[in-house]
């Protein structure tokens, strides 16, 4: 897809059943935008960020996808002002804590924007 596109899903309750719902909505949008080559990576990483919002922030959250013709940007904004604590070195004994490690390894770039009322964790993936 050429040009700029933006999709927003706002005020999503922090409930576990919302994770597959958001994932399916995002897949539908990416397929409509014909970004099949980015689909697997974007789906996996967005699933991690949404899961983290549900598990850790426990506040309603918003998901934004935007495409500028070169990069897909995904954002998850929640109401918890505490920054994430990424474990960028895997704990081989642990059963969790690898979500941001995946984001760090698979995204072209990623980061966190902190606000008084919450935070946005975002990532970008680009076409090869």
Brief digest:
The protein is of the alpha+beta class and 128 residues long. The chain is built from 3 helices and 5 strands. The chain has one domain: Heat Shock Protein 90.
Can you lay out the helices and strands and say which pair or pack?
Blueprint: E1 5-12, H1 18-32, H2 36-57, E2 61-67, E3 71-78, H3 99-106, E4 109-115, E5 118-126
Antiparallel strand pairs: 1-2, 2-3, 3-5, 4-5
Helix pairs in contact: 1-2, 2-3
What does this structure look like?
The chain is an alpha+beta fold and 128 residues long. The chain has a single domain, classed as Heat Shock Protein 90 (2-Layer Sandwich). The chain is 35% helix and 30% strand. The protein contains 3 helices and 5 strands, in the order βααββαββ. It has helices spanning 18-32, 36-57, 99-106; strands at residues 5-12, 61-67, 71-78, 109-115, 118-126. The chain has a 5-stranded antiparallel sheet with strand order 1-2-3-5-4, with helices on one face. Strand 2 (61-67) and strand 3 form a beta hairpin. The longest helix is centred in the middle third of the chain and has 22 residues, at 36-57. It starts with a strand and ends with a strand.
């Amino acid at each position: 897809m050429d040009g700029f596109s933006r999709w927003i899903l706002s005020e999503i309750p922090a409930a576990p059943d919302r994770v597959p719902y958001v994932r399916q909505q995002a897949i539908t949008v990416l397929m409509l935008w014909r970004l099949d080559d980015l689909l697997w990576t974007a789906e996996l990483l967005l699933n991690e960020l949404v899961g983290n919002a549900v598990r850790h922030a426990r506040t309603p959250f918003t998901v934004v996808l935007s495409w500028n013709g070169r990069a897909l940007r995904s954002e998850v904004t929640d109401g918890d002002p505490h920054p994430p604590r990424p474990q960028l070195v895997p704990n081989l004994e642990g059963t969790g804590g690898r979500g941001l490690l995946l984001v760090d390894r698979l995204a072209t770039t990623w980061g966190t924007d902190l606000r008084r009322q919450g935070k946005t964790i975002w990532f970008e993936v680009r076409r090869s």
